[in-house]
Design goal:
heterodimer; A: elongated
Amino acid sequence: MTEIALSHPAAEPAESPLTPESWGKLGMWIFLVGDAMGFGTLLAGYGAMRYGSADWPSPYDRLGISLTAFMTFLLICSSVTMVKALEAIKGGRPGRVKLFLCLTILGGAMFLGMQAYEWTHLIEGGLKIYGNPWGATLFGTTFFIITGFHGAHVTGGVIYLSIILAVVSRSRNASRNYMITEIAGLYWHFVDLVWIMVFTFIYLL
Amino acid sequence: MAATHTNYMAIFWWLFALTIIEIGVIYMPIAKVIIVILLISLALSKASLVAMYFMHLRFERRTMALIAVTPIFLGTLLVFILIPDHSAVPHRTREEVRPAAVSH
């Protein structure tokens, strides 16, 4: 490989250097690292604003954590169904692939429904993106921006997985199905991973 | 295809248990700073489990893992970069600042 690269410096390697099985997988990882930096910036900004505020309300008293704890549980379950779908492709069981992908999509849709319910409840209680009845205005701003940014990712994930379900249901190419499902799974698990951080920083701390 | 022999249900139960512990921690009668350290440690543990086993990072090449953890280092660095800002400017609500302004 090195000799070939030296003798043909302009030639591109045929396979991805970090993920030999797929360039797409490397592409998804690089996208996720960039996206993680976006979320990291939001959470670091949240921490700075909260630390500098004299009247930041106690989040778990004002937001309530029983519903969001269940939402966390739901996303963890959907991550399990996602890896089970991948296992089913490997085991050559298309029926189970569809079932587990449907369950994953259902988990994401239920999460979004609960977030809509939570937002409605909080907005009716006076929490706004520009105001907060319990103290610092930025409490409302940061809450809606960070949970909204995550919710947008879940929405994207539900659409993405629905497309993957449609493609996998029609195609009989097992290795291609495995690869596109694994790449979609990377995105879905990332959404779960980010929620773990959001749940801790926004609701528990 | 990544070579994986993971017991996904075991990972699920670990994540479930760590979430229950997290919720328990916030009601513990201990110093706030200890609660913060415990919660961040538990969250990072859960995130690591998801990345290593569900995202198969444990079975990828080491360079891939190094790239994946970069945002954590940059995020932590950003927290320290922001410290001078929020310690220099008091972010108080208008009502709290007003009496001080009147007394001058």
